[in-house]
Amino acid sequence: MGTKLGSWLDERLGWRQVWDAIFLRKIPKVNWFYTLGSASLFVTVNQLITGILLTIYYVPTPDHAYDSVMFITTQVPAGWLIRGLHHWGASAMVILVILHMLRVILYGGYKYPREVTWFTGVILLIVVIGFGFSGYLLPWDQKAYWATTVGTRIAGTPPIIGDWILRIMRGGEELSAVTLARFFGGHVWILPSILLLLIGIHLYLVIRNGISAVPKRGE
Ligand code: HEM
User: Fold this and answer.
1) What confidence tier does 1 reach under pLDDT thresholds 50, 70, 90?
2) How far is the CA of 199 from the centre of ligand 1 (A)?
3) Fewest Cβ atoms nearer than 10 Å: which of 49, 57, 198, 218?
4) CA of 48 to the centre of ligand 1 (A)
5) Do residues 108 and 212 touch, judged by C-beta distance below 8 A?
6) Is the Cα torsion angle 132, 130, 72, 63 positive or negative in sign?
7) Is the CB of 47 within 6 Å of ligand 1?
8) 123 burial class (0-12, 13-18, 19+ CB within 10 angstroms)?
9) What pLDDT score does 135 carry?
10) 110 lines ligand 1 (CB under 6 A)
């Protein structure tokens, strides 16, 4: 915005400095593997938009969850598309984030001064896996029910605290309406809040420290 309005706003908000820091920052000569972080960001935005749209029709109760998902897939205009994008986007997100992490490992991008970027990345990976696990139950079909039965039982295997973890996850001894409500709450409120906060810190650090250059032999 080279306009008068842009300058008027810049005098009051200082937005040009922020814009330049984000979009006009210098980056070293890198290769295509360095686009995996942005690709992760892209699928994250896809998941947020399609996920919000799905909540318009999805009902997180044992009576209605499965039917509401069927209704979205067969009756709602473009519902199949929105659900498909969210469903396949979930797998794409896990794959892309892992590939992005492998790039960071292979190129030593985690080293000084980017350790904290790495730490936030590790938690991001756990959050992404949490999204996959909690989202899998939401259609409340046989596959979802039994996968979560098995998954929560595995989470319940550690000694001493295992039983406590299992009951926290299920909201009781067995899978029930409470489990579904819990997984839904985690999937649409708790995990997205953590994800957005962490991505904010992650990207701030990427800009603050600059992207690392491709390492040379022996470096
Ligand atoms: C939703 C998940 C994630 C998003 C949206 C994201 C996004 C990004 C973006 C856009 C960049 C800059 C471009 C690039 O290097 O590709 C980046 C850099 C980085 N990411 Fe991630 N990331 C995520 C997960 C992770 C994970 C799981 C790790 C590691 C455990 C990680 C560690 C790093 C590090 C250390 C850098 C700096 C690399 C360098 O300067 O060479 N990120 N991330």
Assistant:
1) low
2) 9
3) 218
4) 18
5) yes
6) positive
7) no
8) middle
9) 98
10) yes
Instruction: Please tell me the residue having the least CA distance from ligand 1 atom 7.
Output: 37
- What is the CB neighbour count within 10 angstroms for residue 51? 20
Distance of CA 189 from the midpoint of ligand 1 (Å): 23
In single-letter form, the type of residue at position 111 comes to: K
Dist. CA 35–CA 30, nearest whole Å? 9
Q: How far is the CA of 133 from the centre of ligand 1 (A)?
A: 22
Query: Is 152 within 8 Å of 138 (Cβ atoms)?
Result: no
Task: Flag whether pLDDT at 43 surpasses 80.
Answer: yes
* Predicted local confidence at residue 190, as pLDDT: 98
Find tokens 């009781």 and name the residue: 172
d(CA 148, CA 163): 15
The ligand 1 atom at the shortest distance from the C-alpha of residue 107 is 41
pLDDT digits (tens, 9 = 90+) for 168-202: 999 999 999 999 999 999 999 999 999 999 999 99
